Amino acid sequence: MKAPRTSACLIGRPLAVAPHRPVPAGGGSSPGADPSGVRRRHARTLSGMRALAGVFIAGAASSCAAEPGVAIQGGRYESIETIGLQVTLDDWFRAERSGWRVVGYPELQVNRHEQSGDELVQGGVFATFRVDPAHARMRPYLEAGLGANVFSRGNIGSKDFGTRFQFGELIGIGIAWGGNTGGANETWIGVRFTHYSNAGIKKPNPGLEALQLVIGHRF
To answer: Do the Cβ atoms of 109 and 145 come closer than 8 Å?
Structure first.
């Protein structure tokens, strides 16, 4: 089985590369007359190869770190209208295998939920994961995440949430294009479904759902 290939920017930062230390030049003896001269020449060759590999690794790592992005999101589900803002931060996990990429990154979001003039504001932090083609120009994606949220109040309309603290689960699909994959100037549009609940910490626990269109851009 082929081992999975993990990118050099596993936590969004270039790998440290040991500095090149040149080996002192050897004498002019032939390999047959002076074996130490052969060893010195081999050492110089290997040292040069390490330095060259270091340049490629550092370049690849710096180019694959995801850039922060901002998205607006809004929609309507079960008579509750939602509009909000999403901020995606630098990725903390990234791996590639067989042309597909998996990226994990923190996401901050604020949403206003409204039902017949009754409203609440929700703020949350999510750990979101996205799967997409690593090198395509148009990149369909699938995303999923878990988060923690705080509601500005404990009810909306006829729903009493039991607690103002709510867990969150999201899943979405969409397409991204432009720029590098996950890099500057990437734009994406998608649809996501989010479910909020207190996981049974306190009754009642009717939950709250949001179905939103998302349009975002990385800078």
So the answer is: no
